[in-house]
Design goal:
- By secondary structure, the protein is mostly helical.
- The chain contains 12 helices and no strands.
């Protein structure tokens, strides 16, 4: 991955177009995230967002960069900044009617913004509303993020039996989806969550 990113960056610098440079920064941020290099992920995705400012037709790219800035900020313990970004991210998603962005702003670690302000009920509502908007045929990242976020809320509120039941019930679908096998970080996060619930 590092060799490919270096080659892409070399070509992007030769071209010098903000879109190409932004894509390289975004790719570096995503690669860093799945490798657990959260500071690099955060910095690269923030850089990508700044570069995408000069581009048009990049809603998906900006949403993806926003999402990974939030995730990286969570792992870096920047909860205040993460909360502010999540609030802005939610508002922008709602203004556009964007299901993809809304899902990531209302599930997973983004729900920690509610917990940081001691509002677990709002976190539960967002996770439940998000799940109702997705099909139950198949198992996608949206399902994983809602599962992860909802279990964190259970643990935060001390509802450990509910947390463990949620993990036990969700686990077969998660494993069958191949997400933990395909993405090492999801495997680590989900095993960590299962251990905490147990």
């Amino acid at each position: 991955a590092r060799r490919l990113l270096a080659a892409a960056n070399e070509r992007a610098l030769a071209v010098g177009h903000p879109f190409v440079l932004a894509w390289c920064a975004l790719a570096d941020g995503l690669a860093a995230y799945v490798l657990g290099e959260f500071r690099r992920s955060y910095e690269s995705c923030v850089r990508a967002l700044a570069l995408f400012e000069g581009c048009t037709g990049v809603a998906w790219e900006r949403e993806t960069a926003d999402h990974y800035v939030v995730l990286s900020a969570f792992y870096l313990g920047r909860l205040k900044e993460m909360s502010a970004r999540v609030e802005l991210y939610r508002r922008k998603a709602d203004e556009r009617g964007d299901l993809f962005a809304s899902t990531y702003a209302r599930s997973g670690f983004a729900l920690t913004a509610y917990l940081a302000s001691e509002d677990p009920d709002a976190a539960r509502r967002d996770a439940a509303d998000t799940m109702q908007r997705w099909s139950n045929r198949g198992y996608f990242l949206s399902h994983y993020w809602c599962f992860l976020g909802s279990t964190h809320v259970d643990l935060y509120t001390g509802e450990v039996e509910s947390a463990y039941a949620r993990v036990r019930d969700e686990w077969p679908r998660l494993v069958e989806s191949m997400l933990p096998r395909s993405v090492q970080l999801i495997r680590v996060e989900s095993l960590h969550l299962r251990a905490r619930a147990a």
